[in-house]
Amino acid sequence: MKIFRRADEMEMSINFKAMRLAYVFENAALLVWAVISQIKGYTPIIQTTIILIQNIIFFGSQLYMKRKMAKEKKDKHEE
Which of 65, 55, 5, 3 is nearest to 26 (CA)? Predict the structure, then answer.
């Protein structure tokens, strides 16, 4: 019995859009929180750290996946 099933194209598209909206909201909320903290005279270390780590993970994984796909495409083309 399978607990998880593969998502079809429509589900993958919906999930991608939902993740993208959640990512934008989270970054915007953290940025607003950091700006408000800075205005109040606090140091927004936690907010800034979360934003930086999140973006490093996002752009790092994006770069890794693009390179992996390009390598696979190149390997298939050479065959």
Answer: 55
